[in-house]
Design a protein that fits this description.
The protein has about 240 residues and is α+β, with helices and mostly antiparallel strands. It has helices at about 10-25, 45-55, 135, 160-165, 175-190, 195-205, 220-230, and strands at about 75-80, 95-100, 100-105, 110, 140, 155. It has one domain (about 10-230). The chain is about 35% helix and about 10% strand. The protein has a two-stranded antiparallel sheet. Helix 5 (about 175-190) crosses helix 7 (about 220-230) and helix 6 (about 195-205) packs antiparallel against helix 7. The chain is elongated, with a radius of gyration of 19 Å. Bound molecules: zinc ion.
């Protein structure tokens, strides 16, 4: 899971909410999860705003949401599922941009992120509300493989974090491998040039979004480079 800072909701979302309230008032019936279809004309604006706030990355696994060529692979996810609380269906704070959540690995489909959630399961961590806790309690294992975990795996530092990692299947094999690859690539780059200036250049690359956002798993690279800088007594 990645911490997310939300900016303002797209203007059209307020109009969607007004329309939802009008329907409830006129029909006297409560909203149902299927009323999510009311978003349709605003969906693209919501996707764009989510991609901007999340620097182009999945709120759960951190993979890029927009592939080269501009195809937007984002699913709009409800942190509190529609099936649990329909009143939060159009709440900006409840909406997250997530990846398709399906990865083919050794001929098998692996589900992760929203696709591995049980329909009514509530997550303990919220990428926006728990932005400070997430890097501390869902830590990527950055050094080799040891008793605590494999390189690239997420080590949960609380029972709540452990439950979210399991629910989102964030330690699925392909995700561990993808994160380990980012760390391996940085190791190779730093073995060629381990200077402070190079470390800082790499750090900027993974923490300064371009117009397209950040590279996949930027939070993993950020954690690794922070650790490397700290090991030398330097501040990121
Ligand atoms: Zn994802």
């Amino acid at each position: 899971m990645r911490p997310v800072k939300k900016s303002d909701a797209p203007h059209c979302l307020a109009a969607v909410k007004r329309e939802a309230r009008r329907i409830v008032t006129e029909t006297g019936k409560p909203l149902v999860p299927e009323d999510w279809a009311l978003l349709k004309d605003c969906a693209e604006a919501v996707r764009e705003a989510l991609a901007r706030d999340q620097e182009g990355l999945c709120a759960y696994c951190g993979v890029r949401l927009i592939r080269s060529g501009g195809a937007n692979t984002m699913t709009i996810e409800h942190h509190t599922p529609r099936a649990v609380d329909v009143s939060q269906m159009f709440e900006w704070s409840n909406l997250l941009g997530v990846c398709p959540g399906r990865t083919t690995y050794n001929g098998r489909q692996i589900l992760h992120c929203d696709k591995s959630r049980a329909p009514k399961h509530l997550l303990s961590f919220h990428p926006v509300d728990d932005a400070l806790r997430i890097p501390n309690e869902l830590r990527v294992h950055l050094r080799g493989s040891s008793g605590k975990g494999r390189l690239g795996s997420i080590v949960a530092h609380s029972p709540e974090a452990n439950s979210d990692v399991a629910e989102l299947n964030l330690n699925a094999e392909p995700l561990i491998e993808n994160r380990a690859e980012v760390i391996d690539r940085l190791r190779r780059l730093l073995s060629k040039d381990g200077s402070e200036a190079h470390m800082r250049r790499l750090y900027r690359t993974f923490t300064t979004p371009t117009a397209d956002g950040l590279p996949s798993y930027a939070h993993v690279a950020e954690a690794y480079l922070r650790r490397k800088l700290r090991d030398r007594g330097l501040r990121p």
